[in-house]
Structure formats: structure tokens, C-alpha cells
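Recap quiz, item 2
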Amino acid sequence: MSPASKPPQRRTLTTDKVVAEAMRLADAEGLEGLSMRRLAGALGVTPMSLYNHVAGKEELLDAMVDAVVAQIDSPEIDGDWRAMMRRRALSMREVLMRHRWASIPLISRMTSGAAILRDTNATLGCLVTAGFTYPQADWARNAIDNHVYGYAFQEVNYPVDPEGYKAAASRFLPRIPASEYPFLHEAARQIAEARYDGITRFEFGLDLILDGLEAWKDAE
Amino acid sequence: MSPASKPPQRRTLTTDKVVAEAMRLADAEGLEGLSMRRLAGALGVTPMSLYNHVAGKEELLDAMVDAVVAQIDSPEIDGDWRAMMRRRALSMREVLMRHRWASIPLISRMTSGAAILRDTNATLGCLVTAGFTYPQADWARNAIDNHVYGYAFQEVNYPVDPEGYKAAASRFLPRIPASEYPFLHEAARQIAEARYDGITRFEFGLDLILDGLEAWKDAE
DNA sequence: ACCTGAACACCGTTCAAGT
DNA sequence: ACCTGAACACCGTTCAAGT
């Protein structure tokens, strides 16, 4: 029971450390760079020892997704619903830009960690308190989240900097002959010329949805 | 040069057959059931012979996604934009229900097969012809597609039949104590009770977006 | 031209064994 | 209680060889 009697095992790993290192790996190299074996290597441990702290790779991914959701600014339940939805959406976008691997598992895994439950509860709560019915609140959340996910996903996959943009355009445009795809060709040309306006466009679409929700709510 | 001189090779495989069998496999067992080796087995061939017809698994997935997109009713360029966007969205939903594995790769791969280029060209063309600017048309398509993808994805992952619904709810509700997540708990309860109204909800959200686009278009 | 066998460099995970 | 070595059952893909 004295400190010196501490057993010889390394005692280095915890679930939190495993999840944190997995997120660091995914941040650095993307999801396809994350394997249990590489993760173990990064932690200086054999692959199998990970299974003492996470049940498997699926559960690890769920935990990573939940850790991402934990970072978003959830609505305050008594706050102005529109301001709160706006703040949450902007925060989600920012978090998804920070963890560029997260959009896909966030969309594609039906997971329910503590942070996700908390955020969903707060979001529905804010909308219901503002006067939406439960089904309406459920739909409103879906509409907003679909926008955020879809947009974030695009932003992650398209080149942001002007040079990258130009390069991608010149790599892409030849595949779109004006004779066969006149509208697509012109759209690509205009987009290739425009400067990047990520947040503006994001907020534009977001406000479109919020307008729709407001009208919908008042209409009934 | 006579028919009898036909060489002994089986000559069974073509790219189209490989893609078609891959889709059948994915339809039946999901994307995680689709491996190059299993696909080869289903075609009665060694894994390596597939590489004579597709460059690799990534390209195979791209081809599968394009084959899915080829099935959707693209807009007619001179048609009423709202009716055409509506028809396209309903068709996309239907196709994504038929190929339940397709939502995720359709969202997450930045691919540009012939069918995708064609559909994008037709969609932008219809909107631009109706009076949207190119950037507006681009955004409009994104908004609609995000809705379709997000919704289809949900519909694929949630149980449709009442029994499955009930089972999922009773498996889920205990994880959501009313004390900690009062709003989420009540939402889950109401949703668990409601009968499934997939298409209605889909069209509701779609019309919300189309209303927003119409207002937006008229406003400038 | 198309298909194959053998091999390479990976995976996630189990299980019995160590301390 | 935690970590390990060895093994199992898979992957995608390359390459030289067959016909």
C-alpha cells in the first residue's frame, strides 16, 4: 500500500488517452490512416493492449464522434431559438473544420454517446420551448444538421486556397467539354473564377432554412 | 477466324458485369460485405482477374455510384424548375431506397462519372434557364441534395416496420432517462408512438426548401 | 488478351499466457 | 488488472507465369 509497492505494469493507457491519440492520428492523417495497429504503435504499445480500454474499432469511432460533438456550442434551452440554432450551426461547422475526418462518421454512424444525447436534448428543448411541436423540432434539427453536414463535407473536400482551387479547376475542366455539358461547364468556369466565400455561403443557406422554419412555425 | 477457332479463355467477364455483380452484392449484404475477393467468388473467378476490368476497389465504387445516379430522373432543361426539382428529388430518394448502401459513398466520394456529370448539367441547366444565376443554381442543388441525402440516410438506418420501430424504441428509451434528457425523452416517446410517415415528411422538408429558393429567386 | 498462383503488406480480433 | 506473443481469418494489390 506504500507508493513503492506500485506494480511494475506501465499503467500508461486509459480509455481517454486512447481516444485522444486516435483523434490526433485522424486529424493528422485522416480516417484511412487510423488502424488499431498504427494507433497502438503511436501509443508505444502492442495492438492487443488497446482492447483493454476500448471494446473494438467501432466503439472507438463512436467515442471519437462523441468527443467531437462534445466540442460544439449547444443551445441554451431558454435562449432565442433562432440565435441559438445559428450559434450551434456555426459552431458545428467550425468543429468539423478542425476535425476534417469527422463529417462522415458523424453522418453515417447511428451513435448515441453522452455528448450527442446532451446536444440533441438541448436543441430539441430550445425549439420546443420556443413553441415548436416535437415533430416540428425534430424536423428542424434534421434540416439544420443536413445543411451543416453537407456543407462541411463539401468544404472539407474542396480546395480552399486560390492556388489549389486553380489547380483543381484546370484538372477538372477538361473533363467537362462545353459541347456536352454546357451548363456544368459554365458553372465550373464561374466557380473557378470566384474567390472562396465559405462562411458567407454557409450562412446564406443556413438563414434560408431558418427563414423557412420561422414561416412554418408561424403558419400553423 | 472461323467460330471454332475461338480461344479457350472463358471470356466471361466485362466491366459492366463486374459492376453489376458488385451492386447485387452490396444490395444484398451492404457495403461491408463487398470485398474484391468475395466479388470474385460470386463471379466464379479468382480475385486477381477482376483487375483486368476495374482498376481497383476505389474505381469500382465510383462506377457503382455512377450506375446509381444513372437511374435518377434528371430534370428536363426547359421544364418548370420547381416540378423538375421535385421530381428529381423524389426519384433520388427512391433510388437510394433501392440501393441502401449508396447514400454514404454518394455523399463521401468526390466522383465524376458520366451519369453524375449529366445529372449535374441538367439540374443546373434547368435552374439557370428558369432564371437563377449560376451561383444560385449551384447553391440550390446543394440544398436539395443535402436534404435528399440526409433524409435518405436516415430512412435507410431507421426501422420502417412498426414492430422494428417498437423494438428499437424499447431498446433505445432506457438509454434516455427523462430526468437527464427530458426533451429528448419526450421526443423519442412521441416518435415511437407515431406511425411512420417517410414520404410525407420528406416532401414537407423538400417543399420548405423549394419555397425558400423561390422566395430567394424572386427577391433579387 | 485474359486469367491464375503465389506472395506481400497489411487489417481487426481472439486466446492463452505472462507479470 | 493490464499487457503480450502467437495465431486466425480476413483484406487489396503486384508480379511473374501460364494459355
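Residues 73-219 of chain B form a domain with the Tetracycline Repressor; domain 2 fold (CATH 1.10.357.10).
Confidence is low (pLDDT under 50) at residues 1-9 of chain B.
End of item.
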